[in-house]
Structure formats: structure tokens, C-alpha cells
Design a protein that fits this description.
54 residues; mainly alpha; 78% helix
């Protein structure tokens, strides 16, 4: 039930943007660009959590 609620509340434009941008972290992972992958994960984390922890 929690998953269904979370999916309903998702902003679909953000989901589409993430899916379209998901090829970059995969490419960087395959090519061993750890710093690039880490930066992308940090960016997504910041976007998802925002000021939640402040």
C-alpha cells in the first residue's frame, strides 16, 4: 500500500527526466568513472531529499 501511495504522489515529469538521464550513470559506471557516478548520485539525493534534513 505504501508503494502504491508513493507512486501516485510522484511527479511524473520528474520521473521521465530521471529515466531519460539514467543512461549517463550507466555509461560512467561501465567506463569506471567513479567520481562522475558519485556526483550524479549526490545530485539525485539532493533533489530527492531537498531540505528534509535541515
Amino acid at each position: 500500500m505504501e508503494f502504491a501511495r508513493a507512486v501516485r504522489e510522484v511527479k511524473h515529469d520528474e520521473t521521465i527526466r530521471r529515466v531519460r538521464g539514467s543512461d549517463r550513470p550507466i555509461y560512467d559506471t561501465i567506463h569506471g568513472s567513479a567520481e562522475a557516478v558519485a556526483a550524479q548520485i549526490e545530485k539525485i539525493h539532493e533533489e530527492e531529499t531537498g531540505d528534509f534534513f535541515l
